[in-house]
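TASK: fixed-backbone design
INPUT:
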């Protein structure tokens, strides 16, 4: 059963049903559901879907393209006569003249061998020939975001030519709940925290006896799907340059993020242009994210990076440190032991904050100011000899002169009155910096609040994550 993606399907439907010929680009990390989205969008439509071959040379890619074209068009072509992408696309055009269908080039970065040559040749054939056929949609889909953004979307050939661009991301809680039907609220929240709303991972775990037992099997056994997933989703992207892995490992060890200079020092990467490109490519891929304080311009030099991919955070925190024991196959119930440790509990607490950040739009709706213009983001300043540094991650700076400060707490038991002292320290710093604005205090607690905390009336509102559904 297909779940979610209503907005993406609506946009694709408008593109596909247009009377003109259009180009769409879809990209996102592996396992995120791009191919499923495409199949659903072209349901009951005539479409040729081509798929590239991973790590195969140009001529093999062309031969595979011609083979797929022959099968779908029910015609025989001599692939040995086709030695360039221009010839291959002309052959596609000759087929489409008599049999107009939509076109999807999936895993386009493999088809292109990560080079821009195919883009230039596709552009020429599209402009001169294929686009002249009425109502044809061309979709370019890929899982290597750096290639899809720099070599396709921003390429000289196709810059400004894409009529639709979709960066597909993980499910939010509302769709994760649909995926994990008949699961309790706590399991759904934990699955979202641990797996980041990635549809493939949720599909793998949905029929297990429990989310934690499923993770035991999938991530802590010798041949578990998630045990070696890091090699498939990260090393296959960036494995040729060890600096990428050093950056990821550095950020994994610092859950509250690092500045560029700190990354360079800790990862042993030159602070110059190479680091800038690495960070940009990792951010395009969705593995990391960057942010500036909510009151600063997005161009501010006060920029922090954090590891934002849930699976990678989980892998570096718990799978990789235990890989030797996992691969030995000797120790059983390893995740059961890990999940009872204070290190795991603290990690879940920080990851719960990430979950809340992902649901910022829903939080604004729950608090009744979604119709008011606002900036969302953290507030932080860098550490100096006179300043210890300070960071709050979930803040809304509203045009009605209110700053909404959200405190996120992951706990088994309801949050008690002790949280007031912690929040009040943050409020005092914010009031000093933004003395003309009202500071509105909100608690987001996995398990709600105690009667004593409710009785204080300290928080404007207390939100529980089941309200995100």
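OUTPUT:
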């Amino acid at each position: 059963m297909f779940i979610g993606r209503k907005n993406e399907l609506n946009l694709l439907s408008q593109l596909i049903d247009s009377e003109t010929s259009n180009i769409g680009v879809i990209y996102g990390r592996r396992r995120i559901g791009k191919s499923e989205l495409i199949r659903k969008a072209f349901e009951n439509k005539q479409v040729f879907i081509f798929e590239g071959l991973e790590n195969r040379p140009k001529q093999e890619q062309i031969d595979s393209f011609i083979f797929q074209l022959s099968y779908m068009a029910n015609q025989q072509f001599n692939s040995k006569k086709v030695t360039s992408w221009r010839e291959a696309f002309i052959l596609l055009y000759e087929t489409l003249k008599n049999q107009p269908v939509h076109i999807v080039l999936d895993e386009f970065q493999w088809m292109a061998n990560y080079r821009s040559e195919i883009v230039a040749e596709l552009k020429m054939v599209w402009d001169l020939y294929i686009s002249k056929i009425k109502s044809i949609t061309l979709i370019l889909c890929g899982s290597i975001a750096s290639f899809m953004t720099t070599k396709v979307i921003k390429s000289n050939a196709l810059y400004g030519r894409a009529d639709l661009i979709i960066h597909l991301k993980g499910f939010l809680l509302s769709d994760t709940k649909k995926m994990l039907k008949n699961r309790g609220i706590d399991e759904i929240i934990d699955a979202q925290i641990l797996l980041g709303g990635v549809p493939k991972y949720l599909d793998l775990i949905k029929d297990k006896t429990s989310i934690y037992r499923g993770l035991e099997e999938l991530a802590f056994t010798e041949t578990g799907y998630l045990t070696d997933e890091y090699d498939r989703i990260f090393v296959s992207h960036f494995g040729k340059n060890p600096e990428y892995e050093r950056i990821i490992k550095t950020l994994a060890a610092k859950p509250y993020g690092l500045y560029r200079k700190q990354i360079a020092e800790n990862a042993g990467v030159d602070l110059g242009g190479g680091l800038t490109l690495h960070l940009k490519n990792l951010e395009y891929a969705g593995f990391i994210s960057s942010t500036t304080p909510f009151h600063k311009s997005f161009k501010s030099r006060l920029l922090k990076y954090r590891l934002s991919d849930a699976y990678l955070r989980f892998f570096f925190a718990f799978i990789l440190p235990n890989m030797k024991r996992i691969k030995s196959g000797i120790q059983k119930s390893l995740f059961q032991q890990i999940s009872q440790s204070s290190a795991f509990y603290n990690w879940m607490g920080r990851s719960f904050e990430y979950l809340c950040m992902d649901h910022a739009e829903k939080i604004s709706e729950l608090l009744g100011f979604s119709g008011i213009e606002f900036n969302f983001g953290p507030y932080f300043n860098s550490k100096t000899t006179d300043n210890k540094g300070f960071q709050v991650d979930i803040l809304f700076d509203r045009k009605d002169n209110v700053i909404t400060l959200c405190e996120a707490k992951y706990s088994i038991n309801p949050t008690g009155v002790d949280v007031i002292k912690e929040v009040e320290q943050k409020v005092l710093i914010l009031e000093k910096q933004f003395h003309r604005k009202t500071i509105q205090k909100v608690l987001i607690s996995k398990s709600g609040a105690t009667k004593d905390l409710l009785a204080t009336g300290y928080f404007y509102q207390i939100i529980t994550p089941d309200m995100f559904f």
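COMMENT: The first helix runs from residue 6 to 16.
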